Amino acid sequence: MTSEEANHAAYDFWLKKTRARISDPVKASILAPSERPRPAAAKRSSFEMDYFDLTGSLMCIPGLQNTAGVMLKEESDRDGANTYLGLTRKGYLNMLLYYSVHGPAALSNSPASIELQARWIVDAIRKIDKSGLSYIEPTEEAEKTWTEIVGMITSITLFPKVDSWYMGANIPGKKVQMLNFPGGLLLYEQMCWKVLETWEGFVTV
Family, per the entry (predicted)? Predict the structure, then answer.
């Protein structure tokens, strides 16, 4: 931290090791830029074990495809981010998500958000079992409406004025859209449990 030369050497060592772990060259240029953006360790470093190896979360799960046989990554690259309540996705029967796209996620207190969604998932599973259902699946219209709600709330904020990770603008070619539910946990909770009362927006079989 007292020598520019030594600091550059440390960054170059980190760069070489990190680039070797990222298979996508576009992501590599973003996550591990060839030019040192700032002195190494001048900002707190992230202590991680596999972050750079697993960039993309759901997209990295082998064989994850919808009922039409389309891979999730291909679907997302084509249509952008779509979920219903940030908890489910059309074409993926009984796939219940948390801390995912269009949920409160990064715009909320993480433990509180995860706990809220986990309670909804547990209640949904109990209701599925009690009703003798085989599966639930959101409708295309429900997904579209939820995405529009997220976009509508976002439009009255300053988020769209900045190219950021929140808006999915950190990856070239990716659709720019809000990736989190920006209406707060209280509103989100009310909307999710209202849906659970009647399965509004779901096909139930």
Answer: Belongs to the FAD-binding monooxygenase family.
Whether residues 12 and 44 fall in one domain? yes
**How are the residues of the chain apportioned to helix, strand and coil, as percentages rounded to the nearest 5?**
45, 5, 50
pLDDT 10s per residue in the chain (205 long)? 899 999 999 999 999 999 999 988 988 999 999 999 999 988 887 777 777 776 766 776 778 889 999 988 788 777 788 999 999 999 999 999 989 999 999 999 999 999 999 999 999 999 999 999 999 999 999 999 999 999 999 999 999 999 888 998 877 788 899 999 999 999 999 999 999 999 999 999 9
**pTM of the predicted structure, to 2 decimals:** 0.74
Locate 174 and state its tokens.
Answer: 């990716």
Residues in the chain: 205
Q: How many domains does the chain have?
A: 2
